[in-house]
Design brief:
single chain, mainly alpha, Arp2/3 complex 21 kDa subunit ARPC3, 9 helices
């Protein structure tokens, strides 16, 4: 039990940091805040692996982190709705762990509701003359929340399938963390390289070196445990490749 709690806390810390990195790799940015990214994915992973309260805690931590480094504030109540409450609501998915897609939809809807309320109350005056504040907030927030929820529904189950340990290794913190880092580090490296490019080269290089080290680690262990090595190599290659393909598609638009 103690090992599981330690693993949960470590995963929350890693995934919250990962959410922040993925937030930097985003498609566009709307005038009053909001953009399309993979930032919700790690929070959903925590919620569906560990439950509602850990998911809410992870979402709350990420919301506060985003508030510190990427804020758009017009009022204290709007700040609470758009940051800590909105991202904490993602963790609601953890109360529906037996039905992951329903949970993701519920968590995404919870976040949407918070942004919707903030939009109606604090940004309704920006609505066009022929549009009510309610309809304006729905359309505005669905513009980026809709694609984010769909992306999360497509990607989160795939990630969970890779990270979910078998019963015999449930308490093996080392194996779990290696798989988590094998997923997080390469995807973070790709997000940093294509999202920030040369703005912080030292971080880019560090991420790329970690990526290479993980690939070597899994390759070396291929003859020791073929199944685990193949799974690790897939984790360090496929997700970042998908991010890069999406980046090329978006850049070509």
């Amino acid at each position: 039990m103690k090992n599981k709690k330690v693993l949960m806390l470590v995963e929350i810390a890693v995934m919250v940091a990962f959410s922040y990195v993925l937030m930097l790799f985003r498609v566009g940015r709307l005038p009053q805040g909001g953009s399309i990214s993979l930032q919700m994915l790690p929070i959903f992973v925590i919620a569906l692996r560990w439950g509602g309260m850990p998911g809410i805690s992870a979402g709350l931590m990420f919301g506060l982190l985003k508030l510190m480094f990427d804020p758009y504030i017009v009022h204290p109540a709007q700040m609470l709705l758009d940051y800590p409450l909105a991202f904490a609501a993602i963790g609601v998915a953890g109360f529906l762990r037996e039905k992951p897609l329903v949970g993701i939809l519920a968590g995404g809807a919870g976040r949407f509701l918070m942004h919707f309320l903030a939009g109606v109350v604090f940004f309704g005056s920006l609505a066009p003359d022929n549009m009510s504040p309610v309809l304006y907030s729905i359309v505005y927030n669905l513009t980026y929340m809709g694609p984010e929820i769909v992306i999360a529904m497509l990607t989160t189950p795939l990630v969970l399938r890779r990270l979910q340990p078998g019963h015999h290794e449930e308490l093996d913190i080392r194996n779990n963390l290696i798989e988590i880092v094998s997923f997080v580090a390469p995807l973070s490296a790709m997000a940093l390289v294509v999202g920030l490019r040369n703005s912080i080269p030292a971080v880019n290089y560090a991420a790329l070196i970690t990526w290479g080290a993980l690939a070597i680690y899994h390759a070396v262990h291929f003859f020791k445990n073929k199944k685990e090595a193949v799974r690790g190599l897939l984790l360090v290659t496929v997700p970042p490749a998908v991010v890069y393909v999406v980046y090329l598609i978006v850049r070509g638009m």
